[in-house]
From TrEMBL:
Belongs to the SRP14 family. It is found in: Cytoplasm. Keywords: Cytoplasm, Ribonucleoprotein, RNA-binding, Signal recognition particle. GO terms for biological process: SRP-dependent cotranslational protein targeting to membrane. It comes from the Eukaryota. Component of a fungal signal recognition particle (SRP) complex that consists of a 7SL RNA molecule (scR1) and at least six protein subunits: SRP72, SRP68, SRP54, SEC65, SRP21 and SRP14. This is Signal recognition particle subunit SRP14. It comes from Scheffersomyces stipitis (strain ATCC 58785 / CBS 6054 / NBRC 10063 / NRRL Y-11545). GO terms for cellular component: signal recognition particle, endoplasmic reticulum targeting.
């Protein structure tokens, strides 16, 4: 499936999480979307300077001031899904200007969809022997 609009993506994620009800694994991923390098530019020896701007880079004189959109993916896998064609994969691209608004809506969708989560059980630690 292709990339969806942000609002359509949130609606589909909400529907999927509501229908899933904790039966299958849901994988959420986010990463920076870097524009593709043209093949012609790669042959000329041009270097992609996409270093983060908040880290001191000693070897380079380049300071990155550009912003990058974020690619967000949701995939649904589970024991009951046998065929690869039945697996659900959704993705969207969020521009940096809309990121704050998207995160607040996305977090609300995730919180309402993950109602069946249980806390991780803590292991009981063995008490140390007291020497006399």
């Amino acid at each position: 499936m292709g990339r969806l609009d942000n609002s359509e993506f949130l609606k589909k994620v909400s529907d999927i999480l509501g229908k899933n009800d904790g039966k299958s694994s849901v994988y959420l991923t986010q990463k920076r979307l870097i524009p593709a390098l043209d093949i012609d530019d790669a042959g000329k020896g041009n270097v992609i300077n996409d270093l983060s701007s908040n880290v001191n880079h000693i070897d380079t004189e380049f300071e990155n001031t550009s912003t990058y959109p974020i690619l967000i993916r949701v995939s649904l896998n589970g024991k009951d899904i046998k065929d690869k064609k039945d697996k659900i994969k959704l993705s969207t691209v969020v521009e940096t200007e809309r990121l704050d608004q998207f995160w607040t809506e996305y977090v609300q969708v995730i919180k309402t969809g993950f109602v069946g989560l249980k806390k991780k059980e803590k292991k009981k630690s063995k008490k140390g022997k007291v020497s006399k």
